[in-house]
Write a structure and sequence with these properties.
Distance between the termini: 28 Å
Order of helices and strands: HEHEEEHEEEEEHHH
Shape: globular
Number of helices: 6
Helix content: 40-55%
Largest sheet: 5 strands, mixed
Length: 202
């Protein structure tokens, strides 16, 4: 009985401490170019619901011309991450860039196919593209829902969440497939929620 009480108290303490820590995170949403207001609002709501933060929407900024890879017709995602890191006020502990244009990364010296989003584990910056979320003749509502899920997924990496093997978990690796995004619950599974709590999350 005493052992059970101690275990329950410890769980409550972890959860309480966690919610406070993540609420102190200063999260910025940075539109890169033109992104519609209702889509940005969906991202803001997803970040608040998933991580218990109050993100700040920054004024739109033009993506750096040097990051554009003309022969591929897309922006280099790593260059955009560097831009966000250098441009954004240091008071923000997390920065999520949203861009309508296509983005891609350079792997092994060759330009890889485009991606939907990117973030490194426990790093400050992330970026998400709307371009590939249109696939499958998706209507406006589905595109916006996909954007909110991908944005929450990439933010999850900045909060220390790796890819998850649990089917339909928010952090499941889409591997470039919008079908995985559509099948997602849009929420972290219990394992990922536990990781967030232990790391100081909601």
């Amino acid at each position: 009985m005493i052992a059970r009480f101690i275990l329950c108290f410890a769980c409550l303490l972890v959860a309480a401490c966690g919610s406070g820590l993540h609420r102190r995170e200063q999260v910025a949403i940075q539109p890169l170019g033109t992104v519609s207001a209702h889509r940005l609002d969906a991202v803001l709501r997803a970040a608040t619901k998933t991580y218990g933060v109050k993100p700040v929407l920054l004024p739109a900024a033009a993506p750096p011309p040097a990051a554009y890879v003309r022969e591929r017709g897309r922006y280099d995602a790593d260059d955009l991450l560097v831009f966000l890191e250098e441009k954004t006020d240091a008071r923000f502990t997390k920065v999520l860039g949203i861009i309508a244009a296509d983005i891609g990364i350079d792997r092994n010296g060759e330009r890889a196919s485009g991606i939907m989003g990117i973030a490194d584990l426990d790093e400050r910056v992330a970026v998400v593209s709307l371009h590939r979320l249109r696939y499958g003749a998706a209507d406006e509502n589905l595109q916006t829902e996909r954007l909110a899920r991908v944005a929450a997924h990439e933010l999850g990496h900045t909060f220390g969440l790796p890819h998850c093997m649990t089917s339909r978990c928010l952090m499941n690796d889409a591997r470039g497939a919008v079908a995985t995004i559509d099948a997602s619950t849009g929420r972290p599974c219990w394992r990922c929620k536990t990781r967030l709590r232990l790391a100081g999350g909601e």
